[in-house]
Amino acid sequence: MIMAWSCTAGRFEWHYAVDETVHIISGEVHVTDEKGEIRRLGPGDMAFFPAGSRSIWHVPHRVRKLAVCRHSMPRPLGTVLRAWNKFAETLVRLWPTAGKRGEGDGARPGGPRVASA
After folding, report:
1. How far is the C-alpha of 32 from the C-alpha of 78, rounded, in Å?
2. Domain co-membership, 30 together with 55
3. How many structural domains compose the chain?
4. Bridge partners, residue 19, by sequence
5. pLDDT digits (tens, 9 = 90+) for 27-76
6. N or C: where does the chain have the smaller number of CB atoms within 10 Å of the terminal CB?
């Protein structure tokens, strides 16, 4: 999900329920992370906040940002998905026409492709 967000001056604690990547459009914010480190973000700056993290935002005047939010995938599921994608890429490399049907090569639309020996 992509959203535009703005905030007037203030200070607040934020808990990230999802992964969030922000791009500061205008204004500035001073972000204090969980280690106590403070970083200034201004126009053109980008930052990533992983799901489960917390930060304190201090907005001196006003800030506008674009945020891209996404639910993080559980690690075991991500591993399975990467393995499946690698397997699919290997199949396409070995049989480049395996996923193409009905492109004038004599294949029946919707029918199985069988190679003769």
Report:
1. 30
2. yes
3. 2
4. 70
5. 999 999 999 999 999 999 999 999 899 999 999 999 999 999 988 767 77
6. C
Q: Distance between CA 3 and CA 74 in Å, rounded?
A: 24
Q: Cα separation of 11 and 7, whole Å?
A: 10
Chain centroid, CA 76 distance in Å:
18
- Tell me the residue range of the domain where 49 lies: 2-70
Q: Establish if 117 belongs to a structural domain.
A: no
| DSSP 8-class letter at 71 | P
Q: Give backbone dihedrals phi and psi of 72, rounded to 5 degrees, phi first.
A: -75, 150
Q: Which of 15, 14, 4, 113 is nearest to 68 (CA)?
A: 4
- Do 42 and 89 belong together in one domain? no
The three-class DSSP label of residue 97 is coil
